[in-house]
Amino acid sequence: MIIAKFGGTSVSTPQSIQAICSIIKKEKKRQPVIVVSALCTITDTLLALIHCTESERQKYFTIIEKTHQALCTQVLPLKKQKIVQRYIDDCIQEMQNILAENIQTKAQEDIMLSYGDSVYQQNKSLRQNLLLPIILLDQQNFCKQ
């Protein structure tokens, strides 16, 4: 078994995603376990979002949305882009609800940060190109409030 984590710049372009797919396919016999985290800049954007003023929030939500949209339009067909866009919209609404309650605990902050990974994991291009059995675990299920 081999465990590999990809995130940041290593998952930020179609070319880098194809490179990851090639790496994983080469290791198929070793039963790879793959951890995919947030796109480049998303964790920092989420941290800024958590600690910004209410009037600054929309700026950070726009960055999150546009970053994911840019990659999706490059790697997914239009029909799948729409599915991912709905998921992004849902995540942003959930984050807005969390922020409306004022983050007061480390667990709430962890939940907010987990959205960076959750949104990216909806990119089915990586998962579908691997031809491996895929189990998607949502890390938000592991965050306790």
Strand order of the largest sheet: 1-2
Q: How many angstroms separate the termini?
A: 33 Å
Q: What is the H/E string?
A: EHEHHHHH
Q: What is the annotated CATH architecture?
A: 3-Layer(aba) Sandwich
Instruction: Quickly count the helices.
Output: 6
CATH topology: Carbamate kinase
- Provide the β-strand percentage band: 5-15%
CATH H level, superfamily name? Acetylglutamate kinase-like
Structural class: mainly alpha
Note the overall shape: globular
Instruction: Profile the largest sheet.
Output: 2 strands, parallel
- State the share of residues found in helices, binned by percent: 55-70%
Q: What is the number of strand segments?
A: 2
Number of domains: 1
* Arithmetic mean pLDDT: 80
